[in-house]
Amino acid sequence: MAEKGGLTRPLLFALLWALVIFILCNMHLETSGEVSWYYFDGIDKVVHAGMFFVLGILSYWGFSEQKRWKSGSRHAGWYALLLCMLYGGLIEVLQGLVFTYRSADWIDWLFDIAGALLGLWVFGLVKKRYIRRNDTKAD
């Protein structure tokens, strides 16, 4: 599944998803003053956790599938967590310094990390069960 240059399709998906996160986290939000039916206090925290849940899964999958760097495959979960933590922190710093129409909130960063951890945990469970199932089929 390795592509030229050592990048895998899942790692490319992770990069594309990171771009989507960047756009969504830094775009201008227009508010009409109306409160939508789905709005509740803290919905932005749930959205942050959800976006980084997906990024955690895609980056863990991507690092574990790549073959160029052996330590990248062996320690895929740690690399994925580090990537998500740094990326979430970078977005908050940029919101405070560059995209000043958005507010930097370090609680958002904590929810980014929580979402990424949950994604890593879920992917780890699925990967372990999938590998175990494939190993038993091979026997």
Topology at a glance:
Blueprint: H1 9-26, H2 43-65, H3 70-74, H4 76-97, H5 106-138
Helix pairs in contact: 1-2, 1-4, 2-4, 2-5, 4-5
Q: Can you write the helix and strand succession as a string?
A: HHHHH
Q: Mean pLDDT, nearest integer?
A: 82
Got a strand count? 0
Shape: elongated
Q: Biggest sheet, open or closed, and with what strands and sense?
A: none
Query: Approximately how much helix is present in the residues?
Result: over 70%
First-last Cα distance: 24 Å
* SS field, number of helical segments: 5
Roughly what fraction of the amino acids lie in strands?
Answer: under 5%
What is the structural class? Answer: mainly alpha
**Cα-based radius of gyration, to the nearest Å:** 17 Å
List low-pLDDT spans: none
Looking at this protein, list some descriptive labels.
139 residues, single chain, 73% helix, 0% strand, 5 helices, mainly alpha
Short summary of the structure?
73% of the residues lie in helices and 0% in strands. The chain has helices spanning 9-26, 43-65, 70-74, 76-97, 106-138. The longest helix has 33 residues, at 106-138.
Task: Give a structural overview.
The protein is an all-alpha fold. It has 5 helices and no strands.
